[in-house]
Structure formats: structure tokens, C-alpha cells
Amino acid sequence: MVSALRFVFLGMMLGLFVAGCEKETTINYEATPTFISEDEEFVGVEGKVGFLNGSYTANEPQKTVWHFWGEPDEINGAVRVEGTYLETGEKYPLLLNEHSFKTATWEYNNGFTQPNLGASKTMPSYVGFEKSGLWKVSVYIDSEKFGEFILEVK
Predict the structure, then answer these.
(1) How many CB atoms lie under 10 A from the CB of residue 75?
(2) Helical spans, DSSP H, in 39-120
(3) 8-32 pLDDT per residue, tens
(4) Best exposed site among 30, 81, 94, 149 by fewest CB in 10 Å?
């Protein structure tokens, strides 16, 4: 009788342990709120990096101008942009040469252009997202993380 009770007790404990292990943690991501600079709406990190808020559609290259805020002498070097598709965690290059996904690149080293809309420096580029959904956009300047935000792509 005691052995049978131990067996039942161990079975119950094992069942509770397995049930506890099966619990998944789900992270709910939301698009980063927009911000205003000189009466224009941006998506990105206020006071750091962003581009004009617009509609981004999967598999459609879009010309955009990156805006960088900060000390001009600190905004120098190659710009690297990593896109993480949040549904799978896969990383993709988001910068496009000649507005084609075939020429996607991780970095631009084309230099910056003039200040605009309150930003210290700007950089024109094409961007492209291969899938619809939420994307984490990580921006690095001269190998240092400059900003990160979440964007919804239709």
C-alpha cells in the first residue's frame, strides 16, 4: 500500500513538473511610438535615429532618408542596419543598393548629408522588408549601437 501511494505521489509530481515545463513565455511586441521633429512625424528613437513615418509594405523597396540626432562629430563612419523579423528571430540586411533585394547590404559607407528637420545629419537609402509583420530595426554607427526600434510592415 505504501509503495502504491509513493508511486501515485511520484506520478503526480512528475505530471506537475512536466506541465510547468510546457508553459511557453510569449513576448508581445508593439510598434515603437512615433515622435515629432519640426512638425514632421518620425518612426525611430527620439533624439537618436529615425525616418519619416510612412507605410512600409513587404517586398516593396522604399526610398527613405535616415535622420540622426546628436553631436555631429559622433555621427561618423559606416552605418549598419540589421532587421530582425520578430516572428522568427531571423536577421536580414535592410539597406538596398539600387532599390533591389538582390543587392541588399548590411552597411552603407556612403557618408552623411546635410542636417534636416532638426536632425544633425541625414543619409538617403533604399530599405526593404521581405515579410509583413513586426520588425526590430537595429542601427549601428561605426560598429556602436546607435538606436533600436520596432516597425510594423504591411
Answers:
(1) 21
(2) none
(3) 444 444 444 444 444 455 577 899 9
(4) 30
H or E segment and range at residue 20: helix 2-22
Give buried/exposed letters for 92-105 (b at 16+ CB in 10 A, else e): bbbbbeeeeeeebe
Phi-psi region of 47 (alpha: psi -120 to 50; beta: other; left: phi over 0): left
Half-sphere exposure of 72 (CA within 13 A, CB side): 11
pLDDT in tens, 28-82: 789 999 999 999 999 999 999 999 998 899 999 999 999 999 999 889 999 999 9
| Residue 68 and residue 99 in contact, taking contact as beta carbons nearer than 8 Å | no
Q: What SS3 class is residue 131?
A: coil
Q: Are 125 and 96 in contact (CB under 8 A)?
A: yes
Matching residue, cell 509594405: 57
Cell of 41: 512625424
Residue 128, number of CB atoms within 10 A of its CB: 23
Strand partners, 49: 45, 68
